[in-house]
């Protein structure tokens, strides 16, 4: 296969300016993803731990095959909504390898409003199921849920 060459001039002022702007955006994205990955409020995380429960990403880490990656999907769903109280829309979805088989994993984060469902939670859940169906992947559910968040229901 022939090698593709680039005409980008990395020493140009335009490149340097664009690279700096994009690098700043990438850092913002990484910070937001890290913020969401921390789960619910610290007091809810502590309550969860006192009950002897694993956090959602710990449960997923134990589920997927050791040494394999878990590709999280839609991690910024509901970002900036509900006063920042619903990181990741209260569920973690992604693709991981379980017993050698790629699977879609959908797991409630009980540190976020007791794992209750918001509108965005349902959308994220359905999108993960669509990805599973389109790719003929089994869907695994790790449920720790308080049901629908009734104040947000019509």
TrEMBL record:
All residue ranges annotated as the CoA carboxyltransferase N-terminal domain in the record: 22-154
GO CC annotations on file: methylcrotonoyl-CoA carboxylase complex
PROSITE patterns named among the record's database cross-references: COA_CT_CTER, COA_CT_NTER
Location of the CoA carboxyltransferase C-terminal domain: 25-154
Coiled-coil region: none
GO molecular function: methylcrotonoyl-CoA carboxylase activity
An example Gene Ontology biological process: L-leucine catabolic process
InterPro entries: AcCoA_carboxyl_beta (IPR034733), ClpP/crotonase-like_dom_sf (IPR029045), COA_CT_C (IPR011763), COA_CT_N (IPR011762), MCCB/AccD1-like (IPR045190)
Name used for this protein in its record: Methylcrotonoyl-CoA carboxylase
Organism: Sulfitobacter litoralis
